[in-house]
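User: Quick one: structure for sequence A, then sequence B.

Assistant: Sequence A:
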Amino acid sequence: MEWGNESLVREFTFLGFSSLAGLQRLLFIAFLPLYLFTLGTNAIIISTIVLDRALHTPMYFFLAVLSCSETCYTFVIVPKMLVDLLAQKKTISFLGCAIQMFTFLFLGCSHSFLLAAMGYDRYVAICNPLRYTELMGHRVCVGLVAAACACGFTIAQIITSMVFHLPFRSSNQLHHYFCDIAPVLKVASHHSRLSQLVIFMIGVFVLVIPLLLILVSYIHIISAILKIPSSTGRYKAFSTCASHLIVVTVHYGCASFIYLRPKSSYSSSQDTLISVSYTILTPLFNPMIYSLRNKEFKSALRRVMGQTSYPIN
């Protein structure tokens, strides 16, 4: 694919933290351990799920895929951001910017559809427990993940192609710390209302459709939980969904704020702040929400560490 043959811009300059020039080294010191902790916890989650047969269930299969996706997602954005916090010249090539946008869109869109698949998994587990093994077999789980990735890939290809075939002749300064859609569109010399509308409608499809599917799933889940006679049973059933609900709220809340707003309300400073939350903080908290506070997972982790002769107290 040719990226913007008519463009005179050969590289972009990031200005995401330019207003905090005196604090950039401090931000590096703060963000680096958070990023390393995120990588470590996701590595623990993936390896534990792979090594412990008790976790070879659909729910933990989706969790392993989610952890892998988040690890790749942060790897696309955070290392470059950390380098730029210490660098005088905060630039990225035109092609590099296109690759970064495509990759994070692919992973982010896949993430949205994957959360919908996880909602369906919880629906089947609570509303059809006797047929759970049949309805959520290995082929079905792999098929759902493959469908989520295929949707993410297609959407990322469409948006990235539309954005980087626009002419870039004036400014190359991005008021952000990575190549997000709105900052790149803002420096394009010309973009039609049609392209803006198409990108907005794709954003609606990626965010609203999966969210509606999740809401429908949880309407049935709540209805089924309320029919459970014992309070202990209701609590246990709801606790299996609480982590998913928290992650869904954070993911769709941040993404909707950024991608479903009118262009007139665009604010680079607000977007930078929100982007930090879903590129650094959300991937940091998701492993703890899903697994490290989960008794079943912690028991499996002890077994795995015991097998490798590193017991956990």
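Sequence B:
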Amino acid sequence: MRSDVARLRCGKTIPLLGMGTYCPQKDRESTISAVHQAIKIGYRHFDTAKIYGSEEALGTALGQAISYGTVQREDIFVTSKLWSSDHHDPISALTQTLKTMGLEYLDNYLVHWPIKLKPGVSEPVPKEEEFEKDVGIEETWQGMERCLEMGLCRSIGVSNFSSKKIYDLLDFASVSPSVNQVEMHPLWRQSKLRKVCEANNIHVSGYSPLGGPGNRWGSMAVIEHPVIKSIALKHNATPAQVALRWGMSKGASVIVKSFNGERMRENKRALDIKLDDQDLSFIDQLEEWKIMRGDFLVNQTTSPYKSIKQLWDDEI
């Protein structure tokens, strides 16, 4: 098997380097242009979600590239996600996503968060009264399994699920998740969660692999860290390349978002870097900084779960 892919439990391979398409401005034309650039550079893994507002633009760009003969559909790996207000009907939600994207199927469909919102809620940071009191997702997962049976997707998985929530899901799942997508980088290494996922043949996919610089919840702490910088200097690489290669060295795919062509090329060159045991040991000794998404959301809202920080407090 190629070194730039991982094999999922369903048999499909997932490219280790993925392009994120979240765009706060929901800029359609910029997204379409960036995806075309990414395909030409060699990206084959694309990540979106209903709440990102980029499904239509990504689908348009992929459709154009396929029609131009630039790439074949079977060579592209596309992930989207079930938004929390659609837990009552994953089949209809995925059917709408496919219609929006102009695709016949997704390669990967994830439950975006292990929480339920009332139908119709479409804000990424919900209000307290918009949460459903029923926090169980057994019926949701049954709907996800049905999506798989119907051929609407090739694999199903979860996102932002802690170790405890993975175990809870495995207790009733007929089909185990192929993927768990979580925030993961050298300053939030997800060691416990990675062990749990590995033991249950669940691939970990890391979003914000550079620490989310430029996002409201993100930080420059990863790429500005002196240890990361020193390892980069040693390998004649950039700190971003070191952070990305670290994630891939742990067997994870990494979802990095940049619409800048030169940075896309820089990020792709992370595949060529070889970190040695000393590099990995230095990174594993870094003090973790779990402030990113969790604390940002706690400062924005409360919920029936005491706080959204509970998602992290049971050790995601």
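Strands lie at 5-7, 13-15, 17-20, 45-47, 77-82, 108-111, 156-159, 179-183, 203-207, 253-256. The chain has one domain: 3-310.

User: Thanks, that's what I needed.
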